User: Which sequence fits this backbone?
């Protein structure tokens, strides 16, 4: 599992870098899927190909002549034996399939589906199709996946949010905790725990102060009632 995660994370990091570069140049790929991701060499160097559907997305001045060409003579990324022949619709964003307006966040959705496949071991093509459909329908990873890969599950669900504007950008994911080492993750969790403990202590002190105020108000009320009773008898 450690080696698997290391290889997958290295590959996904490169995919994100490539997609971030595409987006930073005002383009949307629109057809990101395993068959369009190519691995070159023993170090798993990633190249993104098949820009036949790529389109401009708010191109900035001076970028009109930017040309992206397909990559050839390299090995397509295959997550398992069942990836071949997968329809593009499995990776397309909801807004793409609806034919409505979409932007670079559509590519981000495709990244989420691919990340899910990279870490999820499917035994059959039917299981793969069913699990991806469940993810697309409910934006939730299966329980077994979340238990084994909690950080990856959080990232997958963020990337495949049904609301496009809620999805992180490729750059956001590149700077996320997904790519932290185990030691860095432990330190980050320790800092989060410390912040939570401080926040809980602050809230506890606030509750104590509120209890004091309530107790004082009750004493004041009793004194006022006693004073009213005294005035009545006088």
Assistant:
């Amino acid at each position: 599992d450690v080696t698997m995660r290391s290889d997958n994370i290295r590959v996904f990091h490169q995919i994100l870098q490539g997609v971030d570069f595409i987006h930073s140049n005002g383009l949307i790929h629109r057809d990101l899927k395993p068959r369009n991701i190519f691995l070159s060499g023993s170090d798993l160097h990633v190249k993104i190909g098949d820009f036949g559907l790529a389109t401009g997305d708010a191109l900035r001045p001076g970028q009109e002549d930017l040309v992206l060409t397909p990559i050839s003579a390299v090995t397509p990324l295959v997550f398992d034996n069942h990836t071949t022949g997968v329809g593009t619709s499995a990776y397309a964003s909801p807004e793409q399939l609806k034919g409505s307006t979409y932007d670079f966040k559509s590519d981000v959705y495709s990244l989420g589906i691919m990340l899910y496949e990279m870490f999820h071991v499917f035994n059959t093509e039917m299981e793969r199709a069913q699990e991806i459909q469940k993810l697309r329908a409910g934006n939730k990873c299966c329980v077994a996946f979340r238990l084994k890969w909690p950080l990856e599950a959080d990232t997958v669900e963020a990337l495949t949010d049904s609301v496009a504007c809620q999805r992180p950008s490729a750059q956001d994911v590149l700077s996320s905790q997904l790519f932290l080492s185990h030691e860095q993750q432990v330190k980050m969790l320790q800092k989060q725990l410390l912040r939570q403990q401080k926040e809980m202590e602050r809230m506890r002190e606030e509750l104590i102060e509120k209890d004091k105020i309530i107790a004082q108000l009750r004493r004041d009320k009793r004194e006022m009632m006693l004073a009213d009773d005294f005035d009545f008898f006088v």
